[in-house]
Predict the 3D structure of the following.
Amino acid sequence: MFKGILVHKDEAGYRATLQDIDETQLGDGDVTVRVEWSTLNYKDGLAITGKSPVVRRFPLVPGIDFAGTVTHSSHAAWKPGDKVILNGWGVGESHHGGLAQTARVSGDWLVALPAAFSTRQAMAIGTAGYTAMLCVLALEKHGIRPADGEILVTGANGGVGGVAIALLAGLGYSVVASTGRLAESDYLQSLGAARVIDRAELSAPGKPLGKERWAGVVDAVGSHTLANACATTKYRGAVTACGLAGGMDFPASVAPFILRAITLYGIDSVMAPLPLRQQAWQRLARDLDIAKLETITREIGLADAIAVGTELLSGTVRGRVVVDMQRGYS
Ligand SMILES: NC(=O)c1ccc[n+]([C@@H]2O[C@H](COP(=O)([O-])OP(=O)(O)OC[C@H]3O[C@@H](n4cnc5c(N)ncnc54)[C@H](OP(=O)(O)O)[C@@H]3O)[C@@H](O)[C@H]2O)c1
């Protein structure tokens, strides 16, 4: 038996409970992992609260990512003692996830923990930080260089936003952080933001085209913010869309695409192919300032995960939340 969160939906309603789980409940997979650290992403908040239909079978262990040590493996790539990371692949949605002390998954889904990171640091980055890296890789592949101009990061106080700012600033880009929490400006500047703007500048319905401001954009917000980001991106610039914290709609016009030749990249972390994941984690190991990562990170125990997962959706949590899966139990 081990401790974990289970999300139930039955005649008693939708609820998440911290409880004992038996290994026989874990389901399919050729690798078993002792989960050392997990994390709370926006999607985990949705799964824990049931605010959006993220969980697709019940009961289910939520948690879209984890880092830990392999305890059993019949997969050729992994052996007991290997340190591994998992992000996405439907884990925490349709397959039992990371918010339990043991996980069983397909070995094809795992990435080796880079030597630069502890399992705690990997989860401080988590799916949010790995997604931020996917956005940066897309901007680089587009050919955007620091000399091309400012990069806008929206949802700046969130997990994706914080890691994106630290990464981009470390790579020499001039970053403009858009936030609803201007009181956190000092924190955003300590991560490397050159300027901080009020998200209200971007969140209201805007014109099809505005003044050309950004060489590139990392957008975690969607809706009017994404439409306005596209409308104010410079000629031949690029926008990466990875989130919907402000809404799933995209009330835009084609003007930025056909008159300014901007490119909109969709960023998905869940089903990203293994080589891209490996590249993203290697680049995080090379480019992310660990000291900055620590300032983004708040640590909790598994016993607090349900309450903090609920808090996450209120938009008041700053940066990343790591969950010590063994605290109080070992
Ligand atoms: N595509 C993928 O594979 C992928 C992977 C990871 C995450 N995501 C998505 O990316 C988004 C951000 O994830 P996260 O982990 O960074 O979440 P998070 O830590 O909860 O941060 C979201 C941030 O968005 C801003 N925000 C919240 N509500 C808003 C609203 N109504 N209007 C405008 N801004 C709002 C807030 O920043 P400020 O207070 O600074 O304004 C908040 O801190 C989520 O939608 C998540 O689902 C997608």
Summary: The chain has two domains: 2-113+291-324, 127-266.
